[in-house]
Amino acid sequence: MVVARYPQQMRDADAADTAKPGTSEPAKADTSAPVTAAELVEPAEAPARPWPAARPRLVRRIVHRLASSPAWRFGLAALGSAVLVVTVYAAFVLTRAGQRLENIGLVGAQLRGAAVRAESLGYLAQMTVLTFALAILGLIAVAFVRRRPGLGVLVGAVMAGSVLLAEFLKGALPRPELVSGPVWILRNDFPSGTATVAAAIGIGALLVAPDRLRWVVLPLGAAFAAVIGQSTQVTGWHRMSGALGGVLLVMAVALAGLLFLARIGLVQPTPRGRIHPTLRAAILGVPAATLIISASALALLVAFPLLQVPTNADAAFLHTVFELLGFGFTVLAFVLFASVIEPFSLGRSSGASRDV
Question: Given the DSSP bridges, would you call strands 344-346 and 3-4 parallel, antiparallel or unpaired?
Answer without folding.
Answer: unpaired
